[in-house]
Amino acid sequence: MSEIKTASMASDGHDHQACTTEAIKTAENHCIEHKLKFTPIRRKVLEILLEENRAIGAYAILEKLRLDGFSSQPPVAYRALDFLGEHGFAHKIERLNAFVACSHPGETHTPAFMICRQCDAVEETESEESDFELSKIAKSSGFKIEQTVIEAEGVCHICTGS
Question: pTM for the complete prediction?
Answer without folding.
Answer: 0.79
